[in-house]
Amino acid sequence: MSTLRGTGALVRLILRRDRVRIPAWILGVAVFLLGSVATFPVALDSAADRQARAALMNNPATVVLTGPGFGQRDYTFGAMVANEMGGMTAVLVALMSILLLVRHSRHEEESGRVELLRAGVVGRHAPLTAALVTVIGVNLVLGALLGFALPVVLPELSTAGSLLFAAGLAMVGTVFTAVAAVTAQLMEHGRAAVGAAASLLALSYALRGAGDLGDGTLSWLSPIGWSQRTRAYVDGTGWPLLLGVALTVLLLFGAFLLRSRRDEGAGLVRGRSGRATASALLSGPFTLALRLQRGVLTGWTIGFVLFGAFVGAIGEQAAVFVRENEMARRYFEQAGGADSAETMIATYLSLMGMVAGGFALQSAGLLRAEESAGRVEPLLGGTPLSRSRWALSGLAATLCGSVLVMGGAGLGAGLVYAGTSGDPSNAARILGAALAYLPAVWVLAGLSTLLFGVLPGATGLSWLVLTGIVFVGMFGPLLRVPDRISDLSPFAHVPMLPTEEFTPVPLLVLAATAVLLTAIGVARYRRRDTA
Amino acid sequence: MNSDPTAVTISGLTKNFGPTHALDGLDLSVRTGEVHGFLGPNGAGKTTTIRILLGLLRADSGEARLLDGDPWHDATELHRRIAYVPGDVTLWPNLSGGEVIDLLGRLRGGIDQHRKEDLLRRFDLDPRKKARTYSKGNRQKVGLVAALASEPELLVLDEPTSGLDPLMEETFRECVRQQQREGRTVLLSSHILSEVEALCDRVTIVRSGRTVESGTLAELRHLTRTSVTAELSAAPEGLAELSGVHDLEITGTHVRCEVDTPHLDGVLRELTAVGVRSLTSQPPTLEELFLRHYEQRSETSTPEGANR
Ligand SMILES: Nc1ncnc2c1ncn2[C@@H]1O[C@H](COP(=O)(O)OP(=O)(O)OP(=O)(O)O)[C@@H](O)[C@H]1O
Ligand SMILES: [Mg+2]
Fold first, then answer.
1. Between A159-186 and A240-261, two packed helices, what is the crossing angle to 10 degrees?
2. What confidence score (pLDDT) does residue A247 get?
3. For residue A188, which residues of chain B lie inside 8 Å, CB to CB?
4. ipTM, 2 decimals?
5. How many CB atoms lie within 10 A of CB B3?
6. Residue B1 domain flag
7. Which of A38, A121, B49, B207 has the most crowded CB, counting CB atoms within 10 A?
């Protein structure tokens, strides 16, 4: 098998290059799943609480977003884990697999590094094989880790059920590793290969959502559906895993066939060509910034509109649940308010406000990303564009984007809630409530700009701050974090509309803070070297 | 056009990056209307100088004037009058080359479409391709077309032809000559000596952040040695005592030596006095000329030799 020569060495090379990235992914997925599972007993101590939860989960919006809800008649912790965490964790594992595989196959080839290796003693199929071996290996390790760790974190979970559940996750990851291996052969560029594989992942999540809502047929077309149909923790059965194995083998066969039929560096689908001249819209730094974040902004907006609609839909049901659940009621009372549907919506909106801070950091962080990629040099060095105009134009795009994202969330939630409550005026009230988080979101953009001006290499630290804010925002009331700490978060000062009273002063103070941070950052940027 | 006789004047410029002395008292003077070569070994400080001229970096000390303005304070006004091509053009991966050229042109207040079309044709560049898919040479062409189409007073080019094939290199040379005919000034940093020889009126050579030589190529040649080989009628005497003679080898009536070019006259007199049967003399090649300036690093070891 001379086409495989060098595979072992390449596997070692991948493991060495990703000695931080791979453990970080494994740890990230484990913390997401195990961390969430660990909080289950905190809010849902009694069987009655869990039954109430089952009733809450049994509505169309939740079924589409989570899972088919096996074992709802006796909603054990195990059934909860499988139903509520299974789908999302599978998506996470699949994303990890897609990104890792494309990184070590198509991206490598694109960078020309493969050519360097192939010119040596490495066989034609070795790079793809090495990437597959590594990523499938990562899935197996992750599966074993989760399978054995779940019963440790929550002793009510059976070992057999946990192993089956984790095997389902590893199966989804393996299938999407193989999917990515195929798209990496078809597409000329890594980004396109990731995009194509991720679209298939989204499709398979949507298929199982539609299937779970209906009679379940469509779910059988989705690897995520297969993993959920192992009915782990309920009346487990392993054979749907075999469907995944069969599909993987088939896809891998296709990938290697495609690989041996194409040239190094070539794809079967050629990249689309662009415009020969710029449209009238692309004429300055602001429209350039919008253009560069078009994809990101579209993704965030769609996501927030959908999640907003979900929040609007479950508001009423969730409120009933909170009324009947002692622990959850205490949680929400400490988070500030009465037990109505609107409190529920307000709570979700504040969570979404914090998450929208992620958009602000990503968008404002573009200043640093563009600078370190060397793409500002031709703009600032070769055209009359000034530094402050360039930076402020980028931030103006961040501002518009944040309005779009939070506005989308508010409209989604508001329109659906107006529909379910039968009161059209609710739409505007909820939209207003969502927009009230904007000044706090801008403070984060300001922080990113400040770091960009003062300590450009440390712009990424702003993400650490956001992590802290989200953590305190979510778990602060539960963990009784003292006020003087939780008040450091800009989001702590936003009135929880529509239930709380609207007070303009904190919002104005937040907006002024954002302006101040931005002004200092831009002023310092004007005076420093471009790096 | 600019009536000032010098487009760029730099004296005693210094710039440190932490412990690295990137520039250590650099001087540079570019006359209006000339093509000025900016040469030196890797890490000599050429790009750093250029980035200071463009207002991207701030000098630690020294004087820098650009088109009679201050490169840092008057950056935006000055940039209307200059165009710049970096040695490694990085583009926005999801914009096409045509979009990038138009965007840069619009930021300057518009470019001549005919000029752009003409340059696209001459450089054989497909403007529809996404920047992500351009090869190194084609990325470089995008930068060149954007700069050359923009009709500036001064063109600042930092190794602009890296990655261009020989055919495109020739196109580039034609374009630079045309720019010069149209009265523009060009500052060209390059490692390609034939390019420098073909285009530059004057050159400045820098090493370890300092200017080591500046002048026309003829003047620089004058500073180096010519190798002389001669067959004489009789064995020469007293050649070794003449000043400016090096590496003298005499085998019977056959003579080989290296002569400092200013002393060539005296040496030839001495030879003809003995009687010359045949004579070949070779001016230094450009390579020899530059290598001599580049290599002195080891002889005059400066502390900046510790430039990382
Ligand atoms: N941003 C920076 N941070 C630290 N050191 C730098 C930085 N930029 C340049 N240097 C250092 O300054 C010195 C001069 O670099 P410069 O890029 O100006 O050289 P150059 O003459 O353009 O070389 P080349 O011919 O390789 O392009 C080098 O020692 C380099 O390592
Ligand atoms: Mg350089």
1. 20
2. 97
3. 133
4. 0.81
5. 6
6. no
7. B49
